[in-house]
Amino acid sequence: MFYDYHRCIGLFSADYEPCEYFKKVYSVLCPNAWVQKWEEQIRDHTFPRDLPGDFKE
Question: What pLDDT does residue 57 have?
Answer without folding.
Answer: 47
